[in-house]
Description:
It contains four helices and 19 strands. It has helices at residues 76-80, 87-93, 158-163, 205-214; strands at residues 4-6, 23-24, 38-39, 42-51, 56-64, 69-75, 99-102, 105-106, 113-114, 117-119, 137-142, 147-151, 164-170, 181-188, 194-202, 223-224, 232-237, 240-245, 273-279. The strands form four sheets. It has a six-stranded mixed β-sheet. The protein is globular and about 45 Å long. The protein starts with a strand and ends with a strand.
Amino acid sequence: xxxxxxxxxxxxxxxxxxxxxxxxxxxxxxxxxxxxxxxxxxxxxxxxxxxxxxxxxxxxxxxxxxxxxxxxxxxxxxxxxxxxxxxxxxxxxxxxxxxxxxxxxxxxxxxxxxxxxxxxxxxxxxxxxxxxxxxxxxxxxxxxxxxxxxxxxxxxxxxxxxxxxxxxxxxxxxxxxxxxxxxxxxxxxxxxxxxxxxxxxxxxxxxxxxxxxxxxxxxxxxxxxxxxxxxxxxxxxxxxxxxxxxxxxxxxxxxxxxxxxxxxxxxxxxxxxxxxxxxxxxx
Length: 283
């Protein structure tokens, strides 16, 4: 098996069966009610906030406790019977989800997944693997509910796959790509939490990783998800309910970076996969 696993510091969240590799420790506007920013296991680190030190004009970042909230991958094909849907459409299908964000890369014409992906403990057929494209950093949720990141491999090994309930691949590097654009990301923290973020603008992955680590991500654990016009998020928890999409402005698309929730469907690109956060039953 190849790859380096970043495990979590909280004993309750140690990965099950994912440790064959060496382990490294690891619409309201922003003025939503303060009570909505922090609930047990779910914290809004930032909501549509600027981060001048990193040149970011809008950042929405959430911290999730996997012992209280389930983080899982959801594909458009399984949830809606379609190759691609927007987060607006998925919200109608999963109204009780606390948070949703676009996830993996995909082929726009047909919605085929690019990079490894696991949903409900199974890897779907038809995944496109792209050797040499640095899709070698995988966010993984184990069957015990723990979250981890596997580095240095484009595909989970058999033992890792058997222990995983969800997984999505992202980029660890993107040479030559330095556009000032939207970015989506997920990581694990040394304290055993999951951070999920949508930020704009960020020019390089190195700057994205540095920003996410400044918010608490463990070094080497930031997974760059699909971004650009695919970036979209929806929140419905603790008195705060909004969705936004950051499709690129164009002939038929308005300016979508409006500093809060947005209803205009033109701001939402249909994508193939999502990360979805839901309260655990009985928690």
